[in-house]
Design a protein that fits this description.
Largest sheet: 8 strands, mixed
Number of helices: 9
Number of strands: 16
Strand order of the largest sheet: 1-2-3-4-5-6-8-7
Radius of gyration: 28 Å
Shape: elongated
Structural class: alpha+beta
Length: about 325
Amino acid sequence: MTSPQPTLTDGVVTLRPWRDEDVSSAIAGHDEEIARWFGRTEVTPSAEEQRAAIKRWRAGFEDASTVNFLVEADGAVAGLVEVRTDDGVGELSWILYAGHRRRGYAARAVRLLVGYAFESLGLRRVEAHVNSTNEHSKRVASRSGLRREGVLRGREVLFGETHDTVLFARLATDPAPDRPESFRAMLNANLPRKRAIAQMLVRDDAGRVLLCRLTYKNDWDLPGGVVEVGESPQVAVTRELEEELALTVQAGPLLLTDWLPPWSGWDDALCLVFDGGLLDPSVLDDAVLEPREIASVQFCTPDEVREHCADFTARRIESALRTLDGGGSTYTESGRA
């Protein structure tokens, strides 16, 4: 770059270029926590290594490949923040030295660096890859205005062990971190999400229950499926019957909320069972099955439900039927009240 590296501040922390006299302070700040998260066998760098790092950071600023700032707080050398650039995207990293952590300095420093990356470096996106077990750095990323985007499995190797990393990112077009909509978006990206499944309990005059034999597992289940993002569960189950069976059945009241614990590689989920009312068995004459998901469909007696379904599915159906008759709970866990 033609212009010198600037100094940035928010009034609490200051980001400035490295000086030769910062070597001893940086060395003194290194400890086991830094070594742990950066995979270093040597806890403290030598003076030669620290001087070489400062030289690399200066060269990186000159060719715009890496911008590294020293972090000052309360007049002391508190750490560093860095962004490595590649085709409009920057990858962030940060270190706070021993004695300067848990005071909010890291989030402030990262915010300053992100603003500089967008305004002065012209980046369109910045991101941080945080070890999935590093709870403090995950909080720093969130408080810096970065949104959680997902988990990258096995991306990092530390001391011979493979680790997942959590991807956080912010776009230049995102609202400023201090705006309410940005705070809501950050919370929305970080809060847990639970899968929702909507199913329909359809019966005939003989009290039999409509079941689908599925192509992707051995047992049978109620018609329905996963609720899409932003979709009403009641709308979802009506859509699923149209897509899988070509039947138009409007979902009635909610009969049962059944929590499904993690099972066989699936995360936990909420299964919402809606009342589909009574249908004549002849309705199946007009059914058109989705061949990738539905092998067959039929009305089944309670004994046949037990025969064809997994235990937890049979329990859910039996609980929904009891609720329909006015004698059951409206909430179960794996079919049990």
